[in-house]
Amino acid sequence: MPQADMTDVIVLGAGAAGMMCAIEAGKRGRRVTLIDHASAPGEKIRISGGGRCNFTNIHCSPKTFLSGNPHFAISALKAYTQRDFIALVERHGIAFHEKALGQLFCDGSAREIISMLTREMADAGVRLMLSTSIHSTSRDDAGIYEVETSDGRHRAASLVVATGGKSIPKMGATGLGYDIARQFGHRVTEVRPALVPFTWPDHLAPKWKDLSGVSLPVTARCNGASFDEAMLFTHRGVSGPAMLQISSYWREGDSIEIDLAPGVDVAGELISGRGERPKAAPVSVLGEILPRRLAQQLCTDLSPAQARLADLGNAAMKAIAGTVHAHHLVPGGTEGYRTAEVTLGGIDTAGLRQKSMESTSVAGLFFIGEVVDVTGHLGGHNFQWAWSSGVAAGRHV
Ligand code: FDA
């Protein structure tokens, strides 16, 4: 059997977190081998943010993450902040802009972020092995890790697992990180697709699917969370930032409360409309508040005896306003990992050290990025977690 190749650090997964960790460790003089089965590094970076990569968020803070332990991310996020990553982007002369709500995107292309990271890796002497399948991982009695791959055996004193979550399997996402965690005695919390569009339940699909393409600002609420962002009707259900965000808080069977006209006094508008144009149909007032097609759809629930504003008493108008301000939707489900931006849940943070991301029970074993039970809100927070957790491990491997 050919002799195994020996380095200081093996990183599994050349995504955002793995590359960042490899760079940081390489800069410290550690010999790093970074292994991925994909033919190019950072494939999710390439497709992120509609091809422009929403690489961080100015307002990123531990409050913008979900985790079994909401305090776990604090240390890594403080040690390497969004300002640190912005400084790196600026040093590489990459132009960027704030789109909305603190979200920073490249002016040009997400590929600039990948080029920046690959240049940094080259400068730090990282050995990048692509198109390499990982067959097995083990640890011997001396605490040395061995990774068997399609390109031979590799040994190192530190093993960093950065293989991401399960979202978008056709881009190479696998559950390998969870399997390795379990192999070494770590608990994995329930994982589920998040930042994912909802689908209609069968009985609502015929009524709502014709609204595909309609979008509007809403407030979406579920299980104590609330987001003021846009909602988009699709052929299959509802999407848009408000729905993607709330999907991280939703469980099967839960109702989502949607305010379709936040900040508008719908009852007041209907009552004054009745005074000004009593013969007009209710849809004429609602159509000035909501997208016309949505207003028409909501008015199909009115009886023929409510054809004119004059036919509606104040109670009926308040009922219509109630439907607009507190529309209850129980989705049939979500589009699942096929389109989910991230995986909620992952390696239980109780088994990891906050500062280094190292296992508390197995020395030299680290988990970083999306594979860990730390999931960000939409808007650059997930990449910031990848950068911050990657640096945290890179400083300790
Ligand atoms: P990531 O998934 O990036 O990397 C894991 C790596 O491990 C991959 O290179 C994969 O090939 C490799 N791997 C997996 N299994 C393996 C195996 N068995 N053997 C070998 N290698 C294996 N976030 C954000 O902040 N801003 C944004 O704009 C977007 N946009 C966005 C769009 C879309 C369409 C998606 C799907 C996701 C986003 N995200 C995002 C989320 C973001 O992409 C995600 O949180 C990070 O990429 C996570 O980084 P990691 O390095 O942890 O995993």
Tell me what the structure shows.
There is one protein chain. This protein is of the alpha+beta class and 397 residues long. The protein folds into two domains: 241 residues, FAD/NAD(P)-binding domain (3-Layer(bba) Sandwich); 138 residues, Translation factors (Elongation Factor Tu (Ef-tu), domain 3, Beta Barrel). It contains 13 helices and 21 strands. Strands 1, 2, 7, 8, 9, 10 and 20 form a seven-stranded mixed β-sheet that branches. A hairpin with a 5-residue loop joins strand 8 and strand 9. Helix 1 packs parallel to helix 5. The radius of gyration is 25 Å and the shape is elongated. It starts with a strand and ends with a helix. The relative contact order is 0.20.
